[in-house]
Amino acid sequence: MPRLSDFVKAYDVRGLVPEQLSEEVAHALGVAFAEVIARPDGKDRVVIGHDMRPSSPQLSAAFADGVSERGVHVTLIGLCSTDGLYYASGALDVPGAMFTASHNPASYNGIKLCRSGAQPVGQDTGLAEVRDLAQWLLDGGSGLGPATSGRGELEVRDLLAEYGAFLRGLVDLSGSRPLKVVVDAGNGMGGLTVPAVLGTAAGLPALPLDIIPLYFELDGTFPNHEANPLDPANLVDLQQAVREHGADIGLAFDGDADRCFVVDAAGDPVSPSAITGLVAAREIDRARAAGDTEIAVVHNVISSAAVPEVIQEHGATPVRTRVGHSFIKAEMARTGAVFGGEHSAHYYFRDFWFADTGMLAALHVLAALGEQDRPLAELAHGFERYVASGEINSAVADQASIVERIRAWAVVRGASVDELDGLTVRAPEPGEPMWWFNVRASNTEPLLRLNVEAKDRETMTRIRDELLGLIRSRATSAGDQQEERSE
User: Fold this and answer.
1) pLDDT tens digit sequence for 379-432
2) Among 102, 116, 273, 344, which one carries the catalytic annotation?
3) The three-state (H, E, C) secondary structure of the chain, written as one string
């Protein structure tokens, strides 16, 4: 019997199928979810959706059977994106479960869980209890007894058109100039949601968009490339297609289509921090027009220094948080923030139950581009003010001693230090061009993750190389790679 602690992570379930995540395990997790989340919250219904992976229909059906076994009704919405599941949880005001492994390879599947109103379920908010009860059941535990209300009923609903109409109601593209848009769905759920939201497949009116599709066929074996746009190798086809078609913009979605990456007309990526700044400015202006006076926007410690600058320039308050969706959502709820953004291209909206939706971020970018005549590169330039290294990972045996060595390096230089999430160090002022960096230990691997940003490339390169010298003098290089930290 698998140990659930091996693949029930801090924020979700993510395991190999069927070695770890089998139908038996999914059923036990469904029972536990009903007992730990749904019934204590006074909810008699759970909504369940799934992605296009071959194992997703069977696993979600087994989970639904476990939920209904405990007397809780189930609404099955079938194929959907993760933000489509969040929409269902919010609109129906019921807990939800999304079967997906996001950008992971085809051999994986997983589950993202939420409470009513798309509130996250993580290690500290119920997931550990769900895991432990499910493990007890799998190990032969008994004693729950029959559900007092009998078996829950199953119903099937299609919410795709309602999801699309809801998002369109938040961003008006009717006045946009015509745009040619290449979209790479990576054989993931964007192949379902993009035609529904940006096109007419769900019966919505046509938008002034000429959509050129790449890999819209739903195929959880990912025959063309991994559905992980954080890896630059997976953007190559999109970049080439944008240039070949003379498109205004390119969009890439990950496997469950909750994250959106953007490239400009030359095929050059627009950083998620720049998208955060652009969307933040629009959401701040929209909130102020609606009468809000105290406006906050959340960003994580890895976001560009330009992000809080843009937020302040638009008269709002930046709120800095740790990396990870549970921290972002908690701070947004605490502060009532209108928007939140992460360096991993997760974008969160108050008007979307504080949940993340790449499609709504894409609508904002398309609206910003279409309401004026400049190309995207020029539009984004005002939000890309500094030079960043990207996330660099190094395999390190003794993470703590190396972090202390970096702290000593910073103190000698008179730099400021904080420990909100890992170690963040900022250049002393005045005296040298702006720079800052963050170094964090992985929670699951012997890795140190380094991000450096500076006023100019020369400064960024100098600081980056000095730090890598400190880190790798006792480390084995893990190469330079972008890593998602908030799935």
Assistant:
1) 999 999 999 999 999 998 888 999 999 999 999 999 999 999 999 999 987 778
2) 102
3) CCCHHHCECCCCEEEECCCCCCHHHHHHHHHHHHHHHHCCCCCCEEEEEECCCCCHHHHHHHHHHHHHHCCCEEEEEEECCHHHHHHHHHHHCCCEEEECCCCCCCCEEEEEEEEHHHEECCHHHHHHHHHHHHHHHHCCCCCCCCCCCCCCCEEECCCHHHHHHHHHCCCCCCCCCCEEEEEECCCCCHHHHHHHHCCCCCCCCCCCEEEEEECCCCCCCCCCCCCCCCCHHHHHHHHHHHHHHCCCEEEEECCCCCCEEEECCCCCEECHHHHHHHHHHHHHHHHHHCCCCCCEEEEECCCCCHHHHHHHHCCCEEEEECCCHHHHHHHHHHHCCCEEECCCCCEEEHHHCCEECHHHHHHHHHHHHHCCCCCHHHHHHCCCCCEECCCEEEEECCHHHHHHHHHHHHHHCCCEEECCCCEEEECCCCCCCCEEEEEEECCCCCEEEEEEEECCHHHHHHHHHHHHHHHHCCEEEEEECCCCCCC
CATH number of the 4-158 domain: 3.40.120.10
Q: Give pLDDT, residue 443.
A: 66
Residues of the chain with pLDDT under 50: 475-487
**CATH number of the domain at 387-480, out of 3.30.310.50, 3.40.50.12280, 1.25.40.10, 3.40.190.10?**
3.30.310.50
102 given a catalytic annotation: yes
